[in-house]
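The instructor's notes for this session suggest beginning with a concrete chain rather than abstract definitions. Hand out the sequence below and ask the class to guess, before any prediction is shown, which regions might be ordered.
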Amino acid sequence: MQPSGRGDGAVGADLPQVLQPDPNPVEAIRLDLPPNGISFGGLEKEVLLRAIQQCGWNQSMAARDLGMSRKTLIYRMQKYNLLRRAPMTAVRDRSNVVEMSARSTGC
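After discussion, reveal the predicted structure:
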């Protein structure tokens, strides 16, 4: 089929299933509020943490999954002090004394 030149483009239904937007993203989240209420900041922090962990700490992917810019994601990560901590590893020195050291790893 040739383009008509009228600006007809692919619409959601024309895309493969994997690329189609979720029609009800809010319904995918099941949330029962406790009787005493909930801290919205705590909820936001938990959603951010789960998204970045699910994406292997890839900020660009997590931001895309959350529908925000990478800059906004980084701002919110800093706001809630969500920093990737380096795993602790044992380091042996010449005197055979073992100490703990944080390894530097990048995303």
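Then share the key points. The beta strands are 88-92, 98-102. The domain at 38-107 is CATH 1.10.10.60 (Arc Repressor Mutant, subunit A).
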